[in-house]
């Protein structure tokens, strides 16, 4: 059988580098197993979308990647998430979760701005990292706000409360706050589900822009969003990874029937 | 399995495509009948039918766009809508070629009749069968059947060569018949093109079923 041109192009891109890799990863909330032996690669400077029905483990997997779970008792990891090129195992008990969260930033569903000024919100992570040089902090805050497409809108009111910003601006501020600490991987957990279509479009444009510099993993319930912005799509179901492939392949011709049933709304 | 909102649209699209296919099949059949029977009245009827087919094409185009815009189909659903959108203009072109055959009927009604139409009626019968088969393969999503029809395209090409050579010989042997034979040359060419279009429909059926493009790859 002949390959399509599209499939031939895919062969070329398989030479891309892996930034992080889940190896036989299982995760437990107490006795409940939420992830079952997940093996998944995240390609450097690409966007990987994780999709699946509620409770499939997609957010759990995302949260493993920056050890957010460690804030709660009774959790347990098995397996590894290796980050390259350092080869560090993110979920190893020897790795400091706080340090990990600087290297793997996370943006949540609802904007989590602090009741501080716009400037202080972005500078927060830098200060946590121990940066004391005022000039360095100012430069990095500006750079992060520019990267988050927010600088022009807030440059004249950096001392104003961040809570005065609109929902979309607050979410971009959260992205700027994460970017300020120059993470290697950026995680998005349904970053636009609380935003209107216009603010959503801006965040999506921003995410696509950011992949030039950073590896991105996004969990989304919005199938069209995954199709629009991601390079790779992983489909999870009942804690297992069912399939991960090029997004175009997943949305045009997934290998697994379960994936096809999910993306075409044939579930249940 | 529950009924999705898009299922209603996809079923309606399938029905519209089937209706158009059946109409195109009928137009081809009647065009060739008008030619063989030298039936000008029937030929004019065929030309009229082409307008209805043009309308059907526009309606399916609109329907495909609506389905894409409102329901964002994915995977097999997407391939079906894409295939339908690409098959519709192919069917319309088959109807156009059939109309051209009917127009040839009108033109040769004024010229000397020929005793023998060589391979033309047989080719037309084959093309009609293959079109019917292509539409069956399309609706039942039977890619093996589609491949079988693709493999039969050479039969129409072979017929075309035989008819072409035969008509040239007739023109040399009997020059007064040249005007009629020249029209029949065009008819033979129309049938050969119709064969190619049927092949295109079958290739899209394979795409819809298997998500592979076999067009231009020489696969049979």
Can I get a quick summary?
The complex is a heterodimer of chains A (268) and B (220). By secondary structure, chain A is α/β, with parallel strands linked by helices. Chain A has eleven helices and ten strands.
Low-confidence stretches of chain B: none
Rg result of chain B = 19 Å
The unreliable regions of chain A are 1-13
Q: Topology as H/E string of chain B?
A: HHHHHH
- Give me the count of strands of chain A: 10
What does this structure look like?
By secondary structure, chain A is an alpha/beta fold. Chain A has one domain (4-263): Rossmann fold, CATH 3.40.50. Chain A is built from 11 helices and 10 strands. Chain A has a 6-stranded mixed beta sheet, sandwiched between helices. A 4-stranded antiparallel beta sheet of chain A has the order 2-1-4-5, covered by helices on one side. Chain A is globular, with a radius of gyration of 19 Å. With 220 residues, chain B is mainly α. Chain B has a single domain, classed as Methane Monooxygenase Hydroxylase, Chain G, domain 1 (Up-down Bundle), CATH 1.20.58.220. Chain B has helices spanning 5-36, 40-71, 75-108, 120-140, 143-173, 178-210. The longest helix of chain B has 34 residues, at 75-108. Chain B is elongated. Classes of the chains: A alpha/beta (268), B mainly alpha (220). At the A-B interface, helix 9 of A face helix 3 of B.
